[in-house]
């Protein structure tokens, strides 16, 4: 019965070296983690927190009923596929309080469910069963799924998994998962490994947001220049320790400015800019939490930081970046979009057609 916290994964710099068959490898999907609970005609879509996803993805209910056993619990991911692969921005838009908008987006940007683990079937809990057994039962349970319900590809072949790591990124996938083949399902424990794409870029630091504890900068606002000399906000670098936040306060203090007229993102001080929907500028209202304070302290755009990032979607860093070090040898004007790696597109349908023998 819901809720059930999903099993998690810890980051690894590379796929594990082990005896053949020791690890089961799967693509890492870029969507919303979702545990599906089915009891006859009743279906609940559980999320990683205590807020169900059921109401946001009504188009998945009938396909799941047509695809899954009568009574079961299945772990997987809700994704939205666009013309260029997985579209996480479109997926985020699906979380909306208005039913009319939810229904409209269910038709315009329909979601799919990718299954990768079977946790219970009938009266039997499979949490203590090895992954190899759970996978075999999942394959049997999803022998003839509806078009919007998929079984994730998987393999014991480490070399094939390494090939997936490179090929599937163009379809919008995050990386590769490595799961112990004889491992049990451990809710809320990091019992698997995830290998994600990691790159670096030199970015202009044009502002910061104070940490919620008020003990220093919690995130740095990152920007890159376009060909016309406009500084675009790409996201943030965050996850600083208490000691590092204290150091950052001192390091950033000489660059703080209150002159919004000369700041490249100063037009957010004008009401017109807030209403314009310019997505690459910071300081706008969050659609996830209307009460969240997204204001920031402006800095003169003179500092350059090297940051590690995973990927870029629609001109923004997909996740929060990790600060590496200051680049005092770089001029801010030299920090442009040209340094970002562009990943070739890869058809998403070929991912679903891939199995361990291809």
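^ structure tokens above, recovered residues below v
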């Amino acid at each position: 019965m819901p809720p059930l916290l999903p099993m998690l994964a810890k980051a690894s710099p590379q796929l594990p070296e082990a005896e053949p068959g020791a690890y089961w490898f799967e693509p890492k999907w870029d969507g919303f983690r979702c545990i599906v609970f089915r009891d006859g005609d009743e279906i609940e879509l559980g999320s990683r927190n205590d807020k169900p996803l059921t109401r946001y993805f009504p188009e998945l209910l009938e396909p799941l009923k047509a695809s899954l056993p009568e009574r079961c619990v299945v772990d997987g991911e809700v994704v939205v596929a666009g013309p260029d692969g997985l579209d996480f921005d479109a997926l985020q838009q699906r979380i909306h309080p208005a039913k009319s908008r939810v229904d409209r987006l269910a038709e315009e940007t329909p979601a799919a469910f990718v299954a990768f683990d079977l946790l219970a079937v009938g009266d039997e809990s499979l949490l203590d069963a090895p992954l190899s057994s759970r996978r075999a039962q999942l394959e049997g349970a999803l022998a003839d799924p509806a078009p919007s319900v998929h079984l994730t590809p998987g393999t014991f072949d480490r070399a094939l998994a390494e090939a997936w790591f490179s090929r599937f990124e163009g379809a919008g996938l995050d990386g590769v998962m490595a799961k112990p083949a004889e491992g049990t399902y451990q809710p809320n424990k990091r019992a698997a490994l995830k290998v994600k794409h990691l790159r670096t870029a030199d970015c202009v630091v044009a502002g910061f947001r104070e940490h919620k504890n008020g003990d220093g900068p919690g995130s740095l606002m990152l920007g890159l220049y376009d060909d016309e000399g406009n500084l675009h906000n790409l996201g943030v670098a965050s996850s600083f320790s208490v000691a590092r936040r204290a150091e950052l306060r001192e390091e950033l203090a000489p660059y703080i400015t209150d002159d919004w007229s000369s700041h490249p993102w100063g037009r957010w001080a004008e009401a017109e800019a807030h209403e314009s929907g310019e997505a690459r500028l910071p300081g706008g209202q969050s659609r996830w939490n209307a009460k969240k304070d997204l204001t920031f302290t402006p800095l003169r755009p003179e500092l350059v930081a090297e940051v590690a990032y995973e990927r870029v979607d629609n001109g923004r860093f997909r996740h929060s970046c990790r600060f590496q070090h200051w680049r005092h040898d770089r001029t801010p004007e030299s920090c442009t979009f040209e340094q970002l790696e562009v990943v070739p597109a890869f058809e998403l349908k070929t991912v679903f057609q891939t199995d361990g023998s291809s």
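The chain has a mean pLDDT of 88.
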